[in-house]
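Now for our specimen.

. . .
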Amino acid sequence: MTRESARLSDLVSRRKFILTSGAVGAAGLAGCTSGSEQGDAESDGGDGGNGGDGGDSGDGGDSGDGGDGGSGDDSNVDRASLSGDVRISGSSTVYPVAEEVSRLWNEEYGDGVGFNITPDGSGGGFENVFIPGDSDINNASRPIKDEELQRCRDNGIEPVEFYVAQDALTVVVNNDADFIDEISLEDLKTIWSPDTAPEMWSDVNSDWPDEPLDLYGPASTSGTYDYFIEAVIGETESDQPIRSDFEGTEEDNLIAQGVSGNEYAFGYLPFAYYTNNPDSVKALGLVEGGNDPVEPSLEGAQSGNYPLARPLFFYANMNKLQEKTHLQEFIRFYVNEADEDYIASDVGYVPSSDQMVEDNLANLEAGIAGDYEFSR
């Protein structure tokens, strides 16, 4: 099965640096004022308070002279003079994008602004960090849920939505699993649905081996978990939305590691984490209806031809956005950077389109003015 080997070999080294740092929790960025306080990646955001929320100054001297040389946006703020902290919680899928953009900020503007970034899962980040008001930004690999939006508003928070990139959610098996190169969405549902919950590969397809299915996937706090249920499984007769007998984790690299260590393992994970492990796991082509199998790729995610293409987001606390100039400027930098080629080459997602950047900037200005109201 073709796996874009030439492209992937060029990307692995840089992505491994970006993605594997997520497995130990906090982003170890230049200027990070709280990196030493981080625990492991399964921490659910209890360290959110060190992101510094109230009155992170750094705002007094940022009337600036346009000294943000070469940023590609139209800000006239002297970003090098800004100081304060930015606390980012949420999705492990979006984590590598946030980490890379934060690194680029520090590289370009110095270490006056520190970043505390944790991969808590989309839902875990919302519930444990963002909704209580402890983070400025929550990454999400699916749109905010209605109940999360309501809890935000109950706490006086209006979440401002920003589109980040497009992902191709990737189904993987062990490299030695030579009996399978593709799978239908119907069989994918059969494997993961609590209504069927097959124990053996042969229970799904008689041509497959009579060996146990060992399953790996994101934990229930993950937005990827939520997206997979919605896109693949749908409604079930069970009290639970997906079978529970799988190894769940918020560390996507551990999914790849688990699958690579077991010949009969099966899992799913974000495309960027697959391309970080191209020699240890095999991606399956997906068959939808009577169509030919489609392999996961950036091109397939961008065109929508890949069945499990999905958008990625982050949400900003509008109150904090109005109060903190350094947060405003970081988000302005972020959304302008999100359409750059390195989002594909260094991270492994499809960058934002020019139109999405314009929409994001409009949301940013509305949030700064206090006029933004989330709607679907």
